[in-house]
Specification:
Strand order of the largest sheet: 8-7-6-9-10
Distance between the termini: 25 Å
Structural class: alpha/beta
Mean pLDDT: 92
Helix content: 25-40%
Order of helices and strands: EEEEHEEHHEHEHHEHHE
Amino acid sequence: MPYWEGQSYGVIPPGTNPKNGKPNSVRLYSIASSRYGDDMTGTTTTLCVRRATYWCPELKADDPAKKGVCSNYLCDSKPGDEVNLTGPSGKVMLIPEQDPTADLIMVATGTGIAPYRSFIRRLFVEKTPYGEVYKGLAWLFLGVANKDALLYDDEWQSVLKSHPDNFRVDYALSREQTNKDGGKMYIQDKVAEYSDEIFTRMDNGAHMYFCGLKGMMPGITEMLEGVSKEKGIVWEDKLKEWKSKGQWHVEVY
């Protein structure tokens, strides 16, 4: 099933929903590999899945009745197992193919990193036609709890060395870093450190992507609204302009 970077596959876990007795419903996962696949055969795909569990303070253990059905199914699957997929689907998170000079500002929390891995591999890791002509800046912001929770850090560090002029990465580690007010460093705080530069790049045609927890969005939009006011610009009009030009990409949950 051919796919493009930024699209998702649906996974249908086996079994039935105990609440209604119907077959389990589809769960969407952003694809974390380029269209060529990690093995460059064009016949494989990669997903970034976090096992969803619930720690019960009374049991002082994980409550199996509340674990994520699909994430645990995928994490427990073994090589050779057949998995029912739907898709691919989605147009919101695609790369602007028509403009290889466009900056790509990518904001993620946790496994929301998946689509950006597909972008970065196609642009800088794999020998691809689009990667050969790309001249913009790919700027990654990733928010996680601590260094141990960083995803694909070895890949990002390798790209930083090979493409220092076209790739940047900034981490927000909420349990290890503090923001300018002395509180925990969340993703919106890290993005805010570069608010003026991001605003300028957006006005010059950059595309900004958001993938991960929806809780990051209010802080980021408030921060950009503040920059707008400083510049004497009506934020609602500016956001409408970016959206109308296809520069604003949001896939949060």
